[in-house]
Amino acid sequence: MEEQQVQAEETAPAVKTVENTETAPAAEAVEATQAQNDALPPKITKEHCAPSKRKRDKAWPWIKAVLFTMLSSLLISLSAYTLITPNNFTIGGASGVAILINIASKGKIPQSIMVAALNLPLIILSFFFVKKKFAVLSAMNIGMQALWLLLIEEIVKYNPNFNVAIIFPGGEPSKLFAALGAGLMVGVAIALAFKIGGSTGGTDILAVMIQKKVKATSISWMLFVINVVIISASYFVIEPIETNDKATEIGLKLMPIALAAFEAFIESRTNESILNGFQSAIEFRIITDKSEEMANAIMKELSRGVTALPATGMYTKISHTMLVCVVSRRQVATLQRIMQSVDPDSFAVTSKATQVLGLGFFNSDV
Questions:
Q1: How far apart are CA 284 and CA 304, in angstroms?
Q2: What CATH class does 280-353 carry?
């Protein structure tokens, strides 16, 4: 009996020592993980992105929509009467059709009336095929276009000496500058309209309705294709300067089409650059053996989520971790610095993300 008590006294401390040895590392690991989580920024949730309930914050989106719509419609109207019509070429969309009709009628049919008349059926259709907000904002833009055009027409009518036309010196080749300016102005106008969830009317509405049925990669390039078809009609409407040289006459006949196509290209590139400039980002795929440290540094310094995937090198058959992260352009340099400091041996592949939608980035209104 005494031997059993002595044996129990000898073994008890040993068991206690083993328990402390096994639980200590686990407790330290839990504490380290908790410390890392405490150092990370709070997670972005739907509550953070919920619309504000303050009246001032609720009114701002509509104030912004009105300001953007006024500027968008003004840019299109000014480009029509200052750059496009005086230089004898057209653009795509309903505005382009209105310009062609105005040129063909020698100015007897005002652009303001044609813009409103051509867009009215599309506005009605948009209420059935797209969101009501899109239809309302598009109708506002078209209405303001008609008002701006009417204002310019009335100013010119009652003030004959007031010249709104911008004609560059140098003859026909100089009209490229007019096409460039018009493309920039119309491209910005379309981007502003799309940014608030509306459009400038015409083929913009048609393109959005088509995209709802057939998922296209880019509204801008769809507009470019549609506009080229409309532009081709200028060959039969705009009369070139008379010349005795047949080759020169053909070249002058094709000049309006070339100018309109150039304008449409600049317009689409400007539109796409502005829209994707607001919503573009860079995707990083990082192969590293220090995934925990790398991910924690990214989440802490950039406040971006990170997804870890298993990766195996097919040549070495060594297992690694691939971290996938999407960051804004201004955060690229910081992420490169993190990679260099945490794991200089890491390997990364980057790619341009045209659009990023969701929590922490952007929402689509169209």
A1: 12
A2: alpha beta
Q: Locate 273 and state its tokens.
A: 């650059």
Q: How far is CA 269 from CA 36, 159, 181, 186, 264, in A?
A: 45, 37, 13, 11, 9
Strand partners, 312: 319
DSSP count for the chain of H helices, then E strands: 13, 4
**Is 298 or 234 the better-scoring residue by pLDDT?**
298
Query: Are residues 145 and 77 in contact, defined by beta-carbon separation less than 8 angstroms?
Result: yes
Q: Is the pLDDT of residue 57 over 50?
A: yes
CB atoms within 10 A of CB 168: 14
Residue 81 CA: distances (Å) to CA of 107, 116, 337: 11, 16, 51
Q: Which helix (H) or strand (E) holds 230?
A: helix 219-231
Domain ranges of the chain: 55-278, 280-353
Burial of 30: CB neighbours in 10 Å, binned 0-12, 13-18, 19+:
exposed
Q: What is the pLDDT of residues 204-240, one digit of tens each?
A: 787 777 776 665 445 667 666 777 778 888 888 887 6
Positive/negative CA dihedral, 210, 214, 220, 223: negative
Interatomic CA distance for residues 153 and 81, integer angstroms: 9
